[in-house]
Each structure stands twice: as C-alpha cells, then as structure tokens.
Amino acid sequence: MTMRLEGKVAAVTGGGAGIGEALCHRLAAEGARVAALDISLPAARQVIKAIGDGLAAEVDVSDSEWRYLMAVHLDGTFYCTRAAVRSMSGRGAGVIVNMASICGLEGCTGHPHYSAAKAGILGFTRSAAKELIVQGIRVNAVAPGFVDTSRLKGALDAGRQAIAARTPAGRLGTPAEIAATVAFLASDDAAYFVGATLSPNGGLVTAV
Q1: Same domain, yes or no, for 55 and 102?
Q2: pLDDT tens-digit series, residues 35-73
Q3: Which of 68, 79, 114, 192 is catalytic?
Q4: Residues 5-22: pLDDT tens digits?
Q5: Is 114 a catalytic residue?
Q6: CB 104 within 8 A of CB 195
Q7: Which domain holds residue 23?
Q8: Same domain, 99 and 4
C-alpha cells in the first residue's frame, strides 16, 4: 500500500468501533499518525493499541431523540470542523472529511431525525468547502450506504438481510470500503475534490 498520508495527522471521531475503527486502521496504514476520539476511552485505547501508535481520547458532545441526534451528528460536525480549522488555518493546509449517510441523500423511512442531521452535514460541507478552500483547506463528505457491522451486532437480522437483497451489489458494504473512500479524499490524489460527496452504497443511489 502506498503511504499517501505519511507525515499527516488524522483525527477520527467515533474511532473506537465500526467504521471509525476501520478508518483508524486504514489511515494509519497509509502513514498518518492517528488520534482515535470516542465516547468510550477504553474502546479508543484498544484501537490505538492494535495500530501500535497514536492517541486515544474521550470526547462527547436531551430533550428528545431529535435534539440528541442533531447534537451528535450536525452540531458535532460543526464543532469538530471549527476546531480543525483553527489548527489548520495557520498552516494554510488541511483536509476535512465529514461523515454523512445515504439517508442524507434520499431520506430513510423511520429515521427522519437521522436523515435530517445527515442532510445538514452535506449542506454544511458544501458551504464550508467553498469558504475554506481559499485557506488551503479541503472539505468533502462521504455518504455511505448500509454497512455490515456484524462484528458488533452479530449475524444480520431479517431487516438488514432485506436491505442487502435490494442493494444492486447484492450485499452490504464493509467498514474497510468506507475507510478506503475516506483515505482517498484525505490524500493528495483528491486535491481537486472540493465540497464533493462520495457515496459508496452498492448502487442504491447512483445520482449524487
């Protein structure tokens, strides 16, 4: 594997499990020094221990489930972006990859709060990208389709089996595939991507 991110620092929110864990491993494999940020410090430490080097840190951002999801996803993206920009602007360089979802592209039945939050992330990403590129900071987003996190949840339940069946690719995505997309956007190979949304989703949505 090419070391596309050698000499760079990558901060991964939700880095203690699932897609975040896969991101930590992939970015480290490409040469980045990784900080795993998670509400569970033991989980973050376990990931960093598996990688062999890096930083583990505990971070956390209701009146209702709506407000809670908005706070975690949309507010959290804003706060993390603001903190990253404060660090990057002085150097005139940096890359931010925000994590959205296929639900933010087309809406997911039964999850209006999550869909709204993820759609908000996409709008925020596009706006921030136009403002920050003049400072040398690239901002893009990844909107994954449905991902197989069976290592955490056990065998696929009937609902997720049905999702896999109606996905044109015939399966759910893997955390490693999402991590590969983020690694590309974080690398210099994606130097001309500004405000873009890449959606590895197995063909569920083909117009982004």
Answers
A1: no
A2: 999 989 999 999 999 999 999 999 877 456 778 888 889
A3: 114
A4: 999 999 998 999 999 999
A5: yes
A6: no
A7: 1-60
A8: no
